[in-house]
Amino acid sequence: MIAAEQLTKRFGGFTAIEDVTFEVAAGEIVGFLGPNGAGKSTTMRILAGVFPPSHGRVEIAGHDVVTDSLRARAVVGYFPERVSVYLDMTVAHYLTYVGEMKGLARREARRQSAAAMASCSLDPVGNRLIGTLSKGFRQRVGIAQALTGAPRVLILDEPTAGLDPEQVADMRALIRSLRQERTVILSTHILPEVEATCDRVIIIHRGRVLALDTPANLNRRLRPTSQVHVEVNGPAADVARALRAVPGVAAVEPQPSPDGAVVFTVCTAPDRDLREVLATVLTQHGWGLRELRRQSLTLEEIFLSLVTADSPEAKTSHETPRDLPA
Amino acid sequence: MKLLVICRRELHSYFGSFIAYILLAVFLLLSGYFFYSDLVFFVLFGGFTLATGLWQFVFLDMRLVAMLILPLITMRLFAEEKKLGTMELLWTYPVRDGEIVLGKFLAAWVFFLAMLLPTAIGPMVFHYWQPFDVAPVLAGYLGMLLLGSAFIACGLFVSSLTENQVVSAMVTYGILVLFWFITWNEEAGTHEVMRLLLGVSLFDRFFNFTRGVIDTKDVAFFAMFVTLFLFFTWQSLATRTWRGVR
Q1: What is the pTM of this model?
Q2: A106 and A144 share one domain
Q3: Within this chain, do residues A157 and A140 fall inside the same structural domain, yes or no?
Q4: What is the interface pTM, i.e. ipTM, of the complex?
Q5: Is A49 on the interface with B (CB under 8 A)?
Q6: Which residue in B109, B113, B115 sits closest to B152, CA to CA?
Q7: Are residues A218 and A305 in the same domain?
Q8: Between B94, B96, B245, which is nearest A50 by CB?
C-alpha cells in the first residue's frame, strides 16, 4: 500500500533523512519510532505530499506522490505533528469543509463529518468553535479530520502527544479499531505505544532506518540470551552459588534489591526455559521465593542497543540519548 | 470546485471576525466623508463638468482609502495559515496550489466588492434628486475594481512570503506606495525613463478611469499586473519543495 524507496530529503546543507526504504502492506499498522529530530516528521510529510523528497520515490496505493500527487493525496488522511485546525470554525462546519476539500459533495461531506465526529467522540462539542476546545478535543478534531473522506491510508504524526493517560488509551483503542480497513503508519517517540498498537516497527535515528521488523522479531534478534528475573528472601552469596550450579545457567547477575530480598537476573541460552528448575532449586533450600519472571527486552532496550551501536559518541561516552523518555 | 470551497471558507473567516466589520466601517465612513466633502466643494466652487469637477476627486480619494484598507484584508490570507500550521494540512488535501491561490484571491475580491458596493449609495441618492450621466461613474467603479484587484494580488503575494501578518501588511504598503510615488520625481528621469515609469505606475493607469475614460491598454495593464502577482504567489507556494514547511 505504501512503498518508499531510498528517500532522501535535504534542506540546504542539512540532511533530514537519508536512504529511507520501507514498505507497508494493506491493513497493516506500522510504527515509526525514533527520538525527536530523527526524521520521522520529514518522512511523514513526504508520504502525505506536503513536500517531495530530494531523491527517491514514494508510491501510495500505486500513485507516485510527486508525479501523480493529487491521486496519491486523495487516498491519504494526514494528522500533522502540530495540530493545526481553523480555530474560528465549529467542529461540524470544519469537518464538512475538510470533506469537501477531499472531493466529496456537500451532502456526503456532512454525512461523513458526522460519522467522523461519532468515531472520535466529538458529538458533544460539534457546534462549538474549535478555538474554545481543550487540547485533547482539538487533537481529536485533528484525527477526525484525517478520517474524513474514508482514506485508505492514514499517516498519523505523534497522534497521542500531549494527551492525558485516559485520552491516550482512547486514542490507541481508536487506532487499533482501524486495523484491517485502513493502512496506518504512525510515528511516536514513546516506545510502549508501538508495542501497544503496531504490527511492525520501523526504527529511525539520525535520518536512517536502523531496523524494520515486528516487535517480537526485534526482541529475538537483539537478545543473545534469555533472561529470568528472580527475587528471593535468603542469603545473597548462597543463593547466587545455588543458581549458578543449575545446569544451563550461563550467568547470574545481582541486581539492586528494594527491601532486604536478593534479586538476580539469571541468563540462560536463548529459547531455554529454566523457570521450573530454578523454582525447585530455590524452594529445596528453604528460601522464600518472591518472584520468578521471564524477561523480554522492552522496545526501549531494543531501541537503546540499536542507537548505541549506531552513534559514535554513544560508543565512547556511553551516554544515553537525551531525548528518550524515561 | 475546490476553489469555491476555499473561497467560502475564507469568506466565513472574514465575516466571522469583528476586524472585518471594523475595516468595512472605516472604509465606508472615510469614502462617505470624502464623497460629501467633494460634493460640497463642487457645489461651492463648481467646475466645467461633473466628471472632472466631482467624480475624479471622489475616486482619487476612494483610491487612497482602498490602499489603506486592502493590505489589512489581504495580510492574513496566507500568513495566518502559516502561523497556525493549517497550510501544511491544506497541502495534503487533493487540491492544486493554483486553486488555493485563486480561491483566496476570489475571497478577498468578494470582500472588496462588499466594501465597494455601499459606496454607491451616495451617488445613487444624488442621482435621485439631480439626474446626471452615470457612464463616468461606472468607469470609475470599473477602475476601482481593477485597482483593488491589483492591490489584492500584490497583498496575496506578500502574505505568501511570511507568517507574520504585520510584516505582510507593511511590505504590501511599501510596494503600493512605491507604485504610487514612482512617477512623482518627474525632473530626475529622462523622458524615456519617465514614459516607462508612467507605464507601470498603478496610479497613473488609474487616472484615466477617474475621468470616465476606459482605455483597453489600462485594462490590459491591470489584468497583467494581477496575473503576474498571482503567478508569483503560485511560485512562492512551490518553494516549500526545498524550503520545507515554514
Answers
A1: 0.84
A2: yes
A3: no
A4: 0.87
A5: yes
A6: B109
A7: yes
A8: B245
